[in-house]
């Protein structure tokens, strides 16, 4: 039977390297989180009204009156945070173990990241709180920096002279649509992955030591899923507003600007890079480049040894990049005051220097270090 | 689609033996070998990760104090005010 054959070849008899570590769990966790978001989002959408006069109160009604509406909402908002945490760890695995050398899989992955960011951005606008409205205003205004067409494109996206009802309704539609584009990309991502099989931490061909996906990795992924579900429930049940902004408990008001407009935590690194450049277009280009640079990773790979497992200099640079990412996330949430300005600018610069210059250089140096010394034959 | 069992790799002159999972203790040496191995793996990585994050944390603490200091006026400048 064709469908059973497909399920068997992808999830049961799939030959999998025996040595893939916990870092390989995040792929299945991302799929699971997407499923949770689609399910909880679907139930939220049953009660949501996408009109600017009704949106905020419909979300409030869902949380207060709908049976377990509060739980569905908390799972959805914290599920989004979990989604980004997993995707950052998944990308980190990709950088450390050079999974980007599976180019097709990697490129679809980057497209999925962009789709996820767009979906999350639009989803945050829907409750129509202060931060929803002003975050949408700030970020959509950035597109006006585009030369020639900028000032025409922005009102076209808004559906009017400013972020208003028309913007909310189209963001609702797109927020519903894009997760299915994400699902289609996920299937394509897996098709390309299964063409060559998963990579592994050692960096050598695992074909001589592969084990079936079931039961080993179904069980391992089930453990990962249990841990992920526990973290999601801890957040949703005990600390639902931990990662959110208090401003979003206030309905949107175009006459009152919040003191500190900032996006959710998972966008703060990009926000920091955006603000680090004093020029509007420059900031926008730097912000988009910080994600699009991932497309260049295969071309920037210089080391002969594939993963970083046995390349200490590259490991150091990887952790420097991780620290830099964390610093940018912190800076993105801070007001634009000294010394945060200089730290943000330095961290933004280092982000690109590490990826574009230092890591390729480290790869080349490490190649030299493992070259055997020539021994003159007798 | 992709390599399947039976056509993964050709390995000649290698004979492997293994015990049935039903004939062995499931978590044999989990602590007696596992914990020293954890320590070995930690030692191998800590010098590449630890110093960087400690420096980052120090920068974080310094920056918070520095921002607070820059927001305050210097009392010595107003000592002789009436």
TrEMBL record, chain A:
Subcellular location, record wording: Mitochondrion inner membrane
Cofactor(s) listed in the protein's UniProt record: heme; heme b
Annotated GO MF terms: metal ion binding; oxidoreductase activity; quinol-cytochrome-c reductase activity
Ligand binding (heme b b562): 76, 175
Co-factor: note: Binds 2 heme groups non-covalently.
Domain Cytochrome b/b6 N-terminal region profile: residue ranges: 1-202
The keyword Membrane appears for this protein: yes
Keywords: Electron transport, Heme, Iron, Membrane, Metal-binding, Mitochondrion, Mitochondrion inner membrane, Respiratory chain, Transmembrane, Transmembrane helix, Transport, Ubiquinone
Described purpose of this protein according to its UniProt entry: Component of the ubiquinol-cytochrome c reductase complex (complex III or cytochrome b-c1 complex) that is part of the mitochondrial respiratory chain. The b-c1 complex mediates electron transfer from ubiquinol to cytochrome c. Contributes to the generation of a proton gradient across the mitochondrial membrane that is then used for ATP synthesis.
Name of this protein: Cytochrome b
Organism: Alligator mississippiensis (American alligator)
Gene name linked to the record: cytb
Automatic annotation (TrEMBL), chain B:
UniProt keyword annotations, A-Z: Electron transport, Membrane, Mitochondrion, Mitochondrion inner membrane, Respiratory chain, Transmembrane, Transmembrane helix, Transport
UniProt-listed GO biological process terms: mitochondrial electron transport, ubiquinol to cytochrome c
Family annotation (Pfam families): UcrQ (PF02939)
Ranges annotated as spanning the membrane: 46-64
Entry GO CC: mitochondrial inner membrane; respiratory chain complex III
Subcellular location: Mitochondrion inner membrane
Family as reported in the entry's similarity comment: Belongs to the UQCRQ/QCR8 family.
Name of the protein in question: Cytochrome b-c1 complex subunit 8
Source organism of this protein record: Alligator mississippiensis
Organism lineage string: Eukaryota, Metazoa, Chordata, Craniata, Vertebrata
